[in-house]
Write a structure and sequence with these properties.
single chain; about 300 residues; alpha+beta; 5-stranded antiparallel sheet; elongated
Length: about 300
């Protein structure tokens, strides 16, 4: 992320020395005012995402730790995502009983500040707090949250301000011919760079939301973090049967997406469902037809997921 951040800011510098067409003083004034507004909006967006948002998430987790419903969860799988200093980041697959009395599996990203205690190993039990008040995040651990370090967010904000001022000053030095900002034209990077940065930030924010920061991804047919949370917290179980399956043709990190075709009964009616999920390439040969557990919402039968028996 840091590399991408600085690549974004390096790109406009290649266009600073390109000659700009002459424009009217009125247009130059408009461009200067628009530039001030856009750079200010961009700075606020960076401040919100990089500084305020981590604080909001931490406060939300602490609130759920105090008001949530306590349950015990079994760690059925663990994937390590690397470590920084004394912090180890992992994705846990947990099995726990939700508000509907269903034993359901869900993922949780954890940052372990005490890895030597090996609290989050496969097979162990941990305490969860289920969210009573909303769907996101659906649950948190009852351990202390690692303290949020917002220094990098402040650095990003200050860098953006310094960059905007420096880019204008450098462009002024090269092209001003004594005018304050009459040299500005639509082709100058100082004018269009904040638009480009805004689009890039919006795209990265969208990609980040695809993988929920609390559950590690969407659940079943859920299209939002709210849908995923509702399915995890209130989904009920019904038996199903895998009648067929095939690879979808897509993959992620060399692991293929597999389409499972499932027959089950929901709300008294036989349903033919399609469930798609990533299957590790090393486990593709073990796939077979057979029983499966379907988790769904009675009031939204189009929202469902499947849980396969674990060997």
């Amino acid at each position: 992320m840091i590399i991408l951040f600085f690549l974004f800011y390096a790109f406009p510098l290649f266009f600073v020395a390109i000659p700009s067409p002459e424009v009217s003083p009125q247009l130059a004034n408009i461009l200067f005012g628009a530039g001030i507004v856009m750079w200010s909006a961009l700075t606020w967006k960076i401040f919100d995402l990089a500084y305020l948002n981590p604080q909001r998430k931490t406060e939300k987790i602490r609130q759920i730790q105090h008001t949530g419903a306590p349950v015990r969860a079994h760690i059925v799988n663990k994937e390590s995502y690397g470590s920084t200093r004394n912090l180890v980041r992992s994705k846990l697959t947990l099995r726990f009983r939700n508000f509907a009395g269903t034993d359901i599996e869900g993922d949780l990203l954890v940052t372990d500040s005490r890895p030597a205690e090996r609290r989050f190993e496969t097979g162990k039990m941990i305490n969860l707090q289920l969210n009573r008040e909303s769907m996101v995040p659906p649950y948190v651990t009852d351990d202390d949250v690692a303290r949020t370090n917002n220094l990098s967010g402040l650095i990003a904000v200050l860098f953006n301000i310094a960059y905007a001022v420096g880019l204008f000053a450098f462009t002024h030095y090269l092209k001003s011919d004594g005018s304050a900002w009459g040299f500005l034209s639509p082709s100058d990077p100082w004018v269009w760079a904040p638009i480009m940065f805004g689009i890039e930030i919006a795209f990265l924010s969208f990609m980040a939301r695809i993988a929920s920061p609390f559950t590690g991804g969407r659940v079943g047919t859920a299209r939002s973090a709210e849908d995923s949370g509702e399915l995890l917290l209130y989904g009920v179980s019904t038996p199903g049967q895998v009648v067929n399956y095939n690879r979808s043709g897509s993959d992620t990190n060399d692991d293929p997406y597999v389409d499972f075709y499932i027959r089950t009964t929901i709300n008294g009616q036989v349903q033919e469902l399609k469930h798609t999920q990533v299957v590790p390439i090393s486990e593709v040969h073990t796939l077979q037809r057979g029983p499966v557990e379907v988790i769904y919402l009675p009031h939204r039968p189009d929202l469902y997921t499947a849980q396969f028996p674990r060997s």
